[in-house]
Amino acid sequence: MAGHAITAQTVRKYSNEFLNIGVDAAAFGMANAVTATSKDVNAGYWNPAGLVHLEDYEFSLMHASYFANIALYDYLAGAMPLDNNSAVGLSVIRFGVDDILDTRALIDAGGNITPFDQLPRFSTADWAFTLSYARKLPLDGFSFGVNAKVIRRVIGDFASAWGFGFDAGVQFDRGKWNIGVMARDITTTVNTWSIDDDIFDDIGDSNNDGVVDENDEATQQEVPESTEITIPKLQVGIARTFVYRYDFTFQTALDLNVRFAETNDIISTSTVSMTPALGFQAGYIDMIFLRAGLGNFQEELQLDGSDDISFQPGFGVGFKYAGIQVDYAFTDIGDQSAALYSNVFSLKLDWSAFRK
């Protein structure tokens, strides 16, 4: 594939957004307010510092549909302790749309329309591969973790990109209280795109005459930027667990999601914006769980010119037995205004239960 030799780059508010969707139906049920409490294999995504609590190998997988089954979202992760003080994890995320019709050949040079079933198809997919490392700190109750991630984005044969970035997180546990901080893209994450020259020029040939000239409407189209920069984001969480008669637990969690840019979050300035997420989980004998949450509070402009606040609710249940945990969430994994609600399932295996 020949690539355009261009050096332009853009710092974007919204870049690699598929990495902000989240993982694990248990977290979705709590509106993703789990920065302080994620302490299993899924901590590699939410806060790698939580991986130090692993006792053995753990595996997790999730499949979800997005935009009424148009896009598919898949996640697979594994993690294990290295010793009593450290752990590692590896995860893969794919967000993709498959079987997209390539309509460049819809009308041939003779003006004939090609039947849809004869048109070629292509896929567009975003991939993330993350290696996580966590370690307990000498201070009692503290742990830290880091992620090294590789991003691969592909748009058929038209364009592709590689990206690299790092995350870092800390957690602190004291009694029934949990505190967590997760910094994403701490060094900024850079995606470098390669665009096929021939295909790009072919798209500009609106007359299908094999020549891109002044008669083509698309001749003014510019080549997109070759470098895309994702700026850092910060998540701060605090949680409290209440225990009743040893069998019943109730956990409350509050996360504050911070972007260093002006957005439509309910708290927003020219340099920083913030939105909260609230999560609740009730558990019985560490086997049955009920969850609820509210998050992604945004100011939305209405048709009459007024502002209104939208939010993303989440509900979920979970069941854990003999090292197998199945979780379900009914939530809008996009945002309340733009996407449809989804049924999300996830599965987690704790290998320590199978060794007993």
Structure, explained:
This protein starts with 8 loop residues before the first strand and ends in a 6-residue tail after the last strand. The protein has a 14-stranded antiparallel barrel with strand order 2-3-4-5-6-7-8-11-12-14-15-16-17-18. A hairpin with a 2-residue loop joins strand 16 and strand 17. It has a single domain (9-355), classed as monomeric porin ompg (Porin, Beta Barrel). By secondary structure, the protein is mainly beta. It contains three helices and 18 strands.
Q: Main sheet, how many strands, which sense, barrel?
A: 14 strands, antiparallel, barrel
Distance between the termini: 53 Å
CATH superfamily: monomeric porin ompg
**Top CATH class:** Mainly Beta
Q: N-to-C SSE series?
A: EHHEEEEEEEEHEEEEEEEEE
Structural class: mainly beta
CATH level-two architecture: Beta Barrel
Please give the structural blueprint:
Blueprint: E1 9-12, H1 25-29, H2 43-46, E2 58-66, E3 71-81, E4 86-101, E5 121-136, E6 142-155, E7 159-174, E8 177-184, E9 189-195, H3 197-204, E10 227-230, E11 233-244, E12 248-259, E13 267-268, E14 273-284, E15 288-301, E16 307-321, E17 324-331, E18 342-350
Parallel strand pairs: 1-10
Antiparallel strand pairs: 2-3, 2-18, 3-4, 4-5, 5-6, 6-7, 7-8, 7-9, 8-11, 9-10, 11-12, 12-14, 13-14, 14-15, 15-16, 16-17, 17-18
